Prior knowledge:
The protein is mostly helical. It folds into 2 domains: 3-62, Orthogonal Bundle (434 Repressor (Amino-terminal Domain)), CATH 1.10.260; 73-107, no CATH class. It has helices spanning 3-14, 18-25, 29-37, 44-53, 58-62, 73-83, 87-107. It is elongated.
Amino acid sequence: METLDKIKKLQNDREWNNAQLASKANIARSTINSMFTRNSTPTNYTLGSICAAFDMTVGEFYSEGYVPSGLSSRETRLLESYKELPDDVQESFIHLFEEFARAEKASGKHNKKYV
């Protein structure tokens, strides 16, 4: 995957627009916009700032099988399986998990295990 495509995917995963990415990366919005309109690879400094905003290193950004650190093996398995699904199915799972979380919160129960 090309650098700009990967940045755009990470933005979409987080539902960030260019202004939000620029703010979180602490770089000018014009830098982000220019990068995409000119289809130009970001400088090392800019990419480092963008990666920091995504809470990853540049090495992790370029790693094909990147999984965020701090996840349990169960969370890692879930994430890896989720990545294999088509976008529309991923969106369905997001809504399903959000509904589970709302129902759990509304019930006042915070059990970590479900049968």
